[in-house]
Design goal:
Layout (H helix, E strand, L loop, with lengths): L1 E4 L1 E4 L10 E3 H5 L2 E5 L4 H12 L5 E6 L2 H9 L4 E4 L8 E6 L7 E4 L10 H19 L8
């Protein structure tokens, strides 16, 4: 349905607050606030760090992106999530070791025989359109 970026969120007083992106190597050197490994964003981050032959220090591990951002806003580290910014945090695209942005891919699947097939299809198409309208054509899914 869409390919949404992973963001590194920093406070306005962070040295990166004027930038629009950060490399995975730079990010790995910071104290990070991450989601648990049950979240796709965490698995993408872990994979990118491993591919960069790096490691990182977790200062906090959270179950929800809102809490991760709140902790970053409180000065505990850099939050890595795919959510929109909150708490006046500054978002930075995270670039992998090849210079490509880290992304999470949103998928939709349903039973073709489901009684609400048309409604589900319309909802999925609408959500995909919303993502493109909200974040731009670069998030459009490659079919």
């Amino acid at each position: 349905m869409a390919r949404l970026p992973l963001w590194a969120y920093v406070r306005a007083d962070h040295a990166w607050a004027y930038r629009d992106h950060v490399t995975i190597q730079e990010l790995a050197a910071e104290p990070l606030i991450v989601l648990t490994s049950a979240h796709g964003t965490r698995r993408i981050l872990d994979h990118a760090v491993q591919n960069a032959d790096a490691s990182y220090d977790i200062v906090l591990e959270c179950d929800t992106p809102h809490v991760a951002q709140a902790m970053a806003a409180s000065g505990h580290g850099v939050a890595v999530v795919s959510d929109d910014p909150r708490f006046d945090l500054h978002p930075l695209l995270i670039l992998d070791s090849t210079g490509e942005p880290l992304q999470i891919h949103l998928h939709a699947a349903w039973d073709a025989g489901h009684y609400a097939l048309r409604s589900i299809e319309a909802f999925a198409a609408g959500l995909s359109r919303f993502c493109v309208e909200r974040y731009g054509p670069q998030v459009a899914a490659r079919l």
